[in-house]
Design brief:
By secondary structure, this protein is of the alpha+beta class. The protein is built from seven helices and 30 strands. The strands form eight sheets. It has a four-stranded antiparallel β-sheet, with no helix packed on it. It is elongated.
Length: 432
């Protein structure tokens, strides 16, 4: 036989033997895999979770990208109370199949069983791009969940920079979004604290002065002001001898010629003359508009331009303008609530309340007995004489059960009342 032919035959034989050996090993590993899988399933069925987990872990060394194996090992780890391995398994499963809702739902339900609602919401929101009715349904149900915070308040103002003026037993203090008084109730009145400022106006007996965030006196005027507002953009509204104007932190006085003035915000403020007409001024106290308005809408902190738009009243109707006094949209309203965020504000048309956005466009048609402006994606609405909250899609998220509500803070905290009781605080779980 030709040597070349013999060489080819030998090579063919060696290759065949190699393939045969590979096939044998693969077949043997496959049989081992089946045996181990059956064993793991049997142990799981008998609730022998520690051995089942160990067996599933061994199987993962053979097939590390098997989605079902990863989730099975995670399930056994959860049964054993091994949170780290369970969460690691969920993360691994998300990498293997980013479009599967299974690991997200498993992780969310794990948190819910431990009453960690905020963590469950975070996980489900992480999966927002996945098309899953189960995820959407569970998330929708959780977004309306809230925690009742301990508080009992006679009255409460509007949030500003994470703080709110609150009254308890006839005295006013400053409360943060945790429901804690940072300045204890001890004053006849207290003002807001602006972002970047450390001065809070307070009234004690007949004296107005400024305290710092610890409640210590900081600025005290020689004059007997009848009102001091919070500092914003370098000035504060003030009242002296029946006139209103502005002061700086040296108590220098500017334009005490008005009957009422708002706080300065976004380079604009509202001022009222002795004929009860309103105008807008800029940060240099120059008139932006004439005294042409019958009213300018302010919140309890005397702010008219929270989001660079302002509600004004002319000829019996309210409309929206910008900080240059130009109309924003062409809608007219019977009544309005000020914007408290960059989300829609409550407006009244034809006897019912709906919502308008910053462009002056009605985004939710009037349909409620009453309403408050949106914040944190929710708005208080009055239905059949009870207040609840709707989401941004106009779906009821917190069932009407309150006698009164106020908007949420940026930290998801809202004042609410039940019946004739005092004001309480609730916090959305997703912010807790």
């Amino acid at each position: 036989m030709d040597k070349k032919v013999i060489t080819i035959v030998i090579l063919f034989f060696l290759v065949a033997m190699a393939w045969s050996g590979t096939f044998y090993l693969a077949s043997k590993e496959k049989q081992q895999y089946k045996t181990q899988l059956a064993k793991a399933e049997e142990l799981e069925e008998k609730n022998i979770y520690i051995d089942a987990a160990a067996t599933y872990k061994t199987l993962l060394t053979m097939d590390p990208s098997n989605f079902d194996l990863v989730m099975k090992y995670g399930e056994m780890s959860e049964q054993l109370g091994n949170e780290a391995e369970f969460l690691k398994s969920c993360a691994h499963a998300k990498q293997i199949d980013p479009e599967s809702p299974i690991p997200y739902l498993a992780e969310a339900n794990y948190y819910l069983e431990d009453e960690q609602v905020a963590s469950a919401i975070d996980v489900l929101q992480e999966a927002s791009a996945i098309e899953s009715k189960e995820i959407d349904k569970l998330l929708a149900s959780l977004l309306g969940e809230y925690n009742e915070m301990y508080a009992s308040l006679s009255d409460i103002g509007d949030w500003n920079s994470g703080y709110v003026a609150a009254e308890k037993e006839g005295q006013w203090g400053l409360m943060n979004s945790n429901g804690d008084f940072t300045i204890s109730p001890q004053y006849a009145a207290i003002g807001a604290i602006a972002e970047g400022e450390e001065l809070i106006p307070v009234q004690q007996n007949d004296e107005w002065f400024y305290v710092d965030q610890l409640g210590y006196r900081k600025l005290v005027a020689d004059d007997q002001f009848s009102y001091l507002g919070h500092f914003s953009e370098g000035v504060a509204a003030a009242e002296l001898n029946g006139k209103s104007g502005y002061i700086n932190q040296d108590f220098e006085k500017f334009h005490f010629e008005f009957s009422y003035v708002s706080a300065m915000k976004n380079g604009v403020a509202a001022v009222k003359n002795n004929q009860n007409k309103w105008a807008l001024i800029d940060g240099e106290f120059n008139l932006i508009t004439g005294f042409i308005y019958d009213d300018v809408v302010l919140d309890s902190n005397r702010i008219c331009s929270m989001n660079e738009v302002i509600f004004v009243k002319q000829n019996g109707s309210f409309s929206l303008i910008n900080t240059q006094g130009k109309p924003v949209g062409d809608e007219q309203f019977q009544a309005v609530k000020p914007f408290v965020s960059n989300q829609p504000a409550a407006v009244k048309q034809d006897g019912q309340w709906g919502f308008v956005d910053l462009n002056g466009e009605v985004v939710i048609a009037p349909q409620y007995q009453n309403a408050n402006s949106y914040s944190c994606g929710r708005a208080g609405v009055l239905i059949d004489d009870q207040w609840g909250f709707i989401d941004s899609k106009n779906h009821i998220q917190i069932e009407p059960s309150f006698s009164s509500v106020k908007p949420f803070s940026q930290e998801g905290v809202a004042p609410v009342k039940r019946g004739d009781s005092d004001w309480q605080l609730i916090q959305l779980y997703e912010y807790s």
